[in-house]
Amino acid sequence: MNGLAKVLLVVIFGVAAALAADNRVAEAVEASADVSLKTDPASPFWSAAHPAYLGKDIHGKSVSNFRTEVRTRWTKGNLYFLFICPYDELNLKPPPNTAQETYELWNWDVAEVFVSSNFEDIKRYQEFEVSPQGEWIDLDVDLHKPHHEVGWTWNSGFEMSARIDPTTHHWYAAMRIPLSAIDKRPPAAGNTFRMNLFLSEGPTSNHHEVTWQPPLSNTFHVPERFGLLKLVQQ
């Protein structure tokens, strides 16, 4: 193998490694000011985001029919998420109650964010869920406890909005999470969080679990498999 070929191989493997690494890092793009919470991906606010994609099941197998786009932005006060979720058959909780937290919302269709600024104890993180009907729950998760779901009594003050579009078979969920609820650092470009993203869709007979970083387990709660979220400037 000549010298040029060796250099080309090094470059190719280097680019491949960089791309593989980037698949575990999502970017939240800074916005100059907070906005009202909307679910229109064509809006200027969401159009400026860098998308991440959920396209594998919990064991890492491709589920391309349910590839979900997630857009993320941040301001000095808040972290924003927009989920764009394809669906085949919705599994909705009757009747919906959007005025207060819905315990065990994870048994129905939901978009989920697991996020934490705690890199010292990876078993501690926060969980945020929104359903297609606008139901919600937030949890302060502590996997050291035998029943981490008791963290649902925590209140982050996060806001949400959701809608279903039956013509395109998509539903949309937007979240606005106060940064002060998940991070003690002053908000700044370069701050990094541990994160994973999930979508649960469909009844038991036609159920799909779509992930950003597959947990390789029958539970989403595998912090060792989280990726990273980095705050960046526009």
Helix content: 10-25%
Q: How many β-strands, per DSSP?
A: 12
| SS field, number of helical segments | 2
Pairing-aware structural class of the strands and helices? Answer: mainly beta
Unreliable runs, pLDDT <50, ≥5 residues?
4-21
Q: How would you state the average pLDDT, rounded? A: 92
Distance between the termini: 44 Å
What amount of the residues lies in strands? 35-45%
Characterize the main sheet: 12 strands, mixed
Quick one: overall form?
globular
Radius of gyration: 18 Å
Short synopsis of the structure:
This protein is mainly beta. The protein has 2 helices and 12 strands.
Please describe what this structure looks like.
The protein has 234 residues and is mainly beta. It is 10% helix and 35% strand. Strands 1, 2, 3, 4, 5, 6, 7, 8, 9, 10, 11 and 12 form a 12-stranded mixed beta sheet that branches. A hairpin with a 3-residue loop joins strand 3 and strand 4. The termini are far apart.
